[in-house]
Amino acid sequence: MTALSRKSIRWGESILERVFFLCAFLSVITTAVVIFILIRETLIFFESVSVTEFLFGTRWTPLLEPKSYGILPLVAGTALIVVGVALLALPIGVACAVFLSEYASARARSIIKPTLEILAGIPTVVYGFFALTFVTPLIRNFIPDTQVFNAASAAIVVGIMVLPMVASLCDDALRAVPQSLRHGAYSLGATSFEVTTRVVVPAGLSGIFAAFVLAVSRAIGETMAVTLAAGATPNLTLNPLESIQTMTAYIVQVSLGDTPAGSLTYQTLFAVATVLFATTLILNIFGTWIMRRFREVYE
Predict the structure, then answer these.
(1) Which domain holds residue 108?
(2) What's the pTM value of the predicted model, to 2 decimals?
(3) Is cis: bond before 62, omega within 30 of 0?
(4) What is d(CA 37, CA 85) in angstroms, rounded to the nearest whole number?
(5) Does residue 229 sit in the same domain as residue 267?
(6) What is the pLDDT of residues 146-180, one digit of tens each?
(7) Does some domain include residue 62?
(8) What interhelical angle do 264-297 and 3-46 show, nearest 10?
(9) Within a 10 A sphere around the Cβ of 262, how many other Cβ atoms?
(10) For the chain, how many structural domains are there in total?
(11) What integer pLDDT is reported at residue 106 of this predicted model?
């Protein structure tokens, strides 16, 4: 290699290093700007509405008279969706991952995994219409009192949406477990089920938990499917058969352009977005802490 070619390589590496730095710096700046705007607009909102009323109020009617700004109905609606998604997607996703990584043949895996991943490519609005035209009528066949817009159908379709993510990430986590652990367990006389449940799954627990955190974060941030299936009724209820409104659905409602910019109702958009951002941030920080703790155990 000539001196000229070595110099060209160093110049190329230097340029790439600066490009990568600018990309990373741009992402940090974008995040900082978003946080700054959310905090600034939220503080303006709290000049007119007390923090106590906002966080602990049980009535949310910023678009109606008399106006109330208690966010608990939106939080409860979001929690209903998240719990429903967790009950549906997490167990089924882990079961699919266990089958794919431990029991499925190469042919079965080549068919099942791409089929699961097709679900991730379906637009969310299609899931919303699927909930309205199929899931809700199906539920009403068994429970006639179910409202047309309800949290249960929204949770089901969002659970189907995040299922490929859970299954794929858990499958990758389980396949990353060293074969020596499996062989050691088999050499001690363990059955295939015991190897899976007592060796492989605990060893891949950090990756499985990462999939859980990402799935829950996706459920919290889902908008279109939830808006179409669950409705837009800020209802403080634990009944999944009633219409509810999530934080993301309210943000969509206000963002349609009918609300005057700069008004107090408009400022609720940023206040709700701040709560949503804080919830997701806390969840990811907690998930990262848990994953690091388990990763240290199984290194």
Answers:
(1) 72-297
(2) 0.84
(3) no
(4) 31
(5) yes
(6) 888 899 999 999 999 898 888 888 888 888 888 88
(7) no
(8) 130
(9) 9
(10) 2
(11) 82
